[in-house]
Amino acid sequence: MVFSSQSIGRLSAVITVLIWTSFIIVARASASHVLLPLDIACARIIGASSILLPWAWWLMRESRQKGEVVGSLFGLSPLPLRITVQAGMLGGFLYAVLAYIGFFYAPAGHASVLMPGSLPLWTTLLMWLFLREKISMNRAIGLGMIVCGGVLVGGMSLLKAFEGGEVWIGDVLFMTAAFCWSAYGVTVRRFGLDAVRATMAITAFALVSFVPAYAVLVNLNVLTSHMAQASWAEIVFHASYQGIVSVVISGITFTHMIRTYGPVKSTMITALVPGLSALGAVVFLDEPLSWNLGAGLALVTGGILFGVRQTLVKNEVQSHQNNA
Question: What local confidence, expressed as pLDDT, does residue 212 receive?
Fold first, then answer.
C-alpha cells in the first residue's frame, strides 16, 4: 500500500502530538518509581544512541570511503564539532536533565503549561535577539497571553514557596528546559541544519559528554544513582520510550509534519499538547485541575493559537496578492 504525502503528514502530526503529550505524563509518573532524574536521562541517551549513531555512521560511510573528513566526535556526529557542541549542550544535555529533574518537583499539569506553552515565547525572543526577526503586534499580543498564563501557574507556586513548598523549583526548571530547547531550535535555524542530522549530533554529544561523566561521578559517590536497584524492565522501558520513541520517532514525525504543513500550521497543531497533557494528568495521574492551572492553560493555548493564526492569515493574504 502506497500512502500519499498528505496521508503521511497527517499521520506524522497525530504521532507527534501523542508522543509529546505522553512524554509529559510518563515523565511525571516516573518520579514515583525507582530511577532518579539523571538515571532516566542516561537511559534516554543510551536508547537514542542505539538507533541514531549507527544510522549516522551509515550516512557518512560513502564520504569516508572517498577519504573525506566528515563529522566530529570520533565519527559519531555528522556535524562539525563547534555546531555539535553548541546544539548538543542545549538540545541533548541541558534540556533532558532540567526537564527530568523538574518532574520530581512539579506536577505534569504545570509542565503542560510551562514547557510546550513557553516554547513560542522563548523562540520568538531569541529569534528577535539573534536573528533580528521582527515581532508583529498580533504575535506580541499572543506572547503576552502566554506570559500571563505562565504567571498564573508559576506565580502561585512562587507564593507557596514562602510556606515551604518546592513546586516552584520544578516550574523554574520547566521554563529553563523550554528555553534550552528554544535555543537549540534557533541554532538549527541559524545554521540551516537538517533535523535528522542535528538529532544525531546532539545525541552523540550527550553520549560522549554526559554518560562518561555521569558514570565517573556515580562511582566516586558524588552523584546518587538507583540504576542498580531498578529492574531491567524499568531501565529498558525508559531507554525505549524516552530514547527511541521521544527522541528518534518524534524527531522524524515532527520533521515530516513541518514538511507537510509548514512551521505555522505545525505550531497550531502542537498547540493541542498543553491541553491534552493537562487533561491526561487529571485522568491518569489523578492530578487536580485548579482554577489557576485551568486559566493559565487557556491563556497559553489561546496565545499560541492567536499568534500563529494571525501569521497564517498574513501569509495567505500575501500569497493571494502575489498570485493576483
Answer: 95
